[in-house]
Design brief:
The complex is a heterotrimer of chains A (418), B (80) and C (236).
Chain A lengths: L2 H13 L3 H9 L11 H6 L6 H16 L1 H5 L11 H11 L8 H4 L6 H14 L5 H15 L1 H13 L2 H7 L18 E4 L4 H13 L4 E3 L7 H5 L2 H18 L3 E4 L3 H10 L6 E4 H10 L4 E2 L9 E4 L12 H10 L30 H7 L1 H10 L3 E4 L2 H13 L5 E4 H7 L1 E2 L1
Helix pairs in contact in A: 1-8, 4-6, 4-8, 6-8, 9-14, 11-12, 12-21, 16-17
Chain B lengths: L8 E5 L6 H9 L8 E6 L4 H12 L2 E8 L2 E7 L3
Parallel strand pairs in B: 1-2
Antiparallel strand pairs in B: 2-4, 3-4
Chain C lengths: L1 H8 L1 H23 L16 H11 L1 H6 L1 H25 L18 H16 L5 H4 L2 H26 L7 H12 L7 H5 L3 H17 L7 H13 L1
Classes of the chains: A alpha/beta (418), B alpha+beta (80), C mainly alpha (236).
Chain lengths: 418, 80, 236
Amino acid sequence: MDTKTRDELLKLFQSKLNQTMRLYLETCTRCGICTEACHAYASMGQVRYISAYRHEIVRRIYKRYFKGRGKLWPSVGEAKELSETALDELYEAAYSCTGCRRCMMYCPFGIDTQMLMSIAKLLLVGAHAEPEILTMLADTSIEKGKSLDIFKESFLAGIKRLEAEVVKKWRIEAGKKAIPIDVEGADLLYVALAGAHSIIPAAAVFNAAGEKWTLSFFEAVNFGAFVGDPTRTRLILDRIINEAKRLKVKEVCICECGTAFRTMKQMSGKQPFEVSAITEVHARYLRAGRIKVDKSRFKKKPITYHDPCQIARNAGVIDEPRYILRHLTDDFCEMSPDPRYNWCCGGGGGLVALGEDNLDFRMKSARVKVDQVKATGAEILTTACENCHTQLSNLNDHYKMGVDVQFLSSMVADALVQ
Amino acid sequence: MSADIKVDKIMDLKGMPCPMPVVKVSKGIKEVAIGQVIEAHTTDPGALADFPAWARTSGNEILKTDQTGDVIKFYIKRKV
Amino acid sequence: MDIVYYIVLVPMVYVACVIFVVGTVVRLVKLFMTPKHSATLQIFPERRPRWLWALGDAFLLPATRRYKPFFWVVLMLFHLAFLLLIVGHIELIAEIKPFQVIPHEVFLGRGFVGLVLALAVLYFLFRRFVSPTKDLSVPEDYYLLILLFLSVLFGSQMDWARRWYGYDSLSAADYREYLSGLLYLRPHVSIDLTASGHSFMLLLHVFFANLFLLFLPFSQLMHSIFSLPMNKLRRG
């Protein structure tokens, strides 16, 4: 690696060094309490998947360039040069971590591995060594924000074709739109994913609840966050924030996507609207009696719920899905351990978006998740995150679990009654 | 297949959830030569926004978009 | 030899203390002047009051108790013994009334505080020779534990000798004279302190303790201070 590249990468490293990051970098005692916390280590038993081991990959570079000790006496902390080899190690550490933050629960100091991996990811972006698929997807999202007019008409036409499907699930009054878009003054802006499965059930439930809602032009998922690029993350967020402000909505409701929800909820700053997850909105409708669901719809099938890490442990939506499930079934089986210590599905942090490239790792590293699901004896495995759903479906096929993987919001839509 | 466009590769992306159609196409386009055309079939309405945006960032060209029934067909020419 | 005793027992102690205090303060000031992370890093479900739960997390290590109960017991014993050891050293400087709530003879703990500490440090050290903790450890982790062990061993040996073997050439009063002299900047190393059969124990104890203090502000031992604010971040 030439000096110029290294200097540029170190500038990027420096840009991540706020107080919190320094605390995370300077406090670890390498006690190893986090050893069994990572699903990849618990499933595969390889040392490189221990959280503290991942931290050290970043920390050794930090010691070398940002601490006096690393310059004077590098061997004492095994401070390490930033080199091509170091970049390979950073890649291995960052893209085998799903950012689930389960290890943060184990650590006596609460060190956030996802934060430390964000340094690794940013250095990889700087060195153009990140998974190019993620950058491509992030750039596609940003481009959509810039050139809305180009695809607006065809997108509207595409959405219109979905309306009949929505009406099949919930009949609406004549003259009303089943999927309203671009409605100024609506109460709620729903930010879906690009797929029909993320739009149709949600639309049926909004219509059933009599919500004054409007569908966003943009998809919720933030590939900028997956690839660990703060600039791209912000640009992708801003598209939705600007749309919400333009339409003067009171609430932005994020579809079943963990990263999208957490990023919007915790990183959008102070805004004139509330941010909620669709699970929270559905629970609210049920509580207020705005929608009713038929419990017999999923009769005789025990149901379990997988808490998406970014929605439950990392953003606090824990009681709402359980409240919804109490309305959908009398046979709910809770997973063990509880949501704080729930195993990650193994698909977060952009790993699912890498598709078949890392399928083998995703399957091997999530064996503990499979065991956890099997132990519940459930026949329906429901969740509220697209990434988790894809990964759990892959696990279902790979391990022949024989469960029916469902989105919670689709279950609500399927069980709607007048 | 569209009568006036010579297609070199057909990709069936029907039923794939987001963002797989655009991921597959971005990989698939590297398997044809510059100037050749891919015909991609998808059922994902989000692709109507994703594909044009991806084409602009990647420097490729969407020659035509057909929406028939549930299936959306894109004709994409590799330019870079 | 006297000059070696003098250097270790007086100027080196001052240098170590100054570097320890200045190093710690500079590091804290620099750190807390750096901007904070803008988004929350909280883990849910939320428990209130958050500061109380953060205190509980920092001092009682609930996750460690849940997943590594034996290690938790050793950690708790170690930290408790370490605290008592600090109290014991303060009592070696001067008589402090509140510490005598439970009447005891100086040095605190009848020799067992040092014993527990030495055994706990050995446990910490030995577990670092075994995989997977071995694969996580870097040299400083071993150096610090070895330094601490040597310091505790020689320090405790002075205590054990008086308590368990009836050795009485050096008494608590001798140490008090030396330590209070250091504190009031009137250092005096008496002949009793350097000419007794166990004087080299004192020399080695102070030498290793000095090294430990010198290294402390630049090491992960700062977790003693950082643990609480970091746990607060996790609790929101």
